[in-house]
Amino acid sequence: MRGSVRRLWLAASVEHAVLHEAASADPNETGGILLGYQTSAGRVTVVTDVRSAGPDARHSRFSFVPDYDHDEREAEEVARQSCGVVSYVGDWHTHPGATSATLSAKDRFTLKTIAKQSGGSLHEPVMLVVAGDWKRMLAAWQLIANVLHSRIVSIEIVRFDG
Ligand SMILES: [Zn+2]
């Protein structure tokens, strides 16, 4: 095995919430923020909680623009309530009707922007994509920070009861 395997541990409650939101928004895109923590220097991301899109988010068939102020407030509130244990680890969004949960060029740019805008607190953010309509597929991606260059890789999803 080359390097270290990256995993996203996904709480069942989070997956249920995301799938429910995806169905509610159909045929438009929706999304939100992922909350949890990272261990083993970013190799393991545990997603314990999720938030849906804020009231000012914009949804259309092929785009989703988050309500950034809402997302920031939600993330701050969760971090405060958990004394910093649980925090923002990345985003999730849907690709309705898509046959695979791959990242668009815009998604890749967004993932890099998340890392930059974190001010060093989140070097390796994750992105969860929900593709499809009646049958949905989930895929997780992560920005891997490197001294020379960063890259985006697909990471394994491990489900747990939570
Ligand atoms: Zn996307």
Task: Kindly describe this structure.
The chain has a 7-stranded mixed barrel. A two-stranded antiparallel sheet has the order 4-5. It has helices at residues 12-25, 68-81, 105-117, and strands spanning 7-11, 31-39, 44-51, 58-60, 63-65, 87-96, 126-132, 136-144, 151-160. It has one domain (7-155): Cytidine Deaminase, domain 2 (3-Layer(aba) Sandwich). Helix content is 25%, strand content 40%. The protein is globular and about 40 Å long. The structure holds zinc ion. The site of zinc ion has 5 residues, from strand 6.
Structure at a glance:
The protein is an alpha/beta fold.
Strand residues, percent: 35-45%
Instruction: State the separation between the terminal residues, measured CA to CA.
Output: 30 Å
The major sheet is characterized as:
7 strands, mixed, barrel
Would you tell me the overall average pLDDT? 94
List its traits.
162 residues; alpha/beta; Cytidine Deaminase, domain 2; seven-stranded mixed beta barrel; binds zinc ion
What's the helix and strand layout?
Blueprint: E1 7-11, H1 12-25, E2 31-39, E3 44-51, E4 58-60, E5 63-65, H2 68-81, E6 87-96, H3 105-117, E7 126-132, E8 136-144, E9 151-160
Bound molecules: zinc ion.
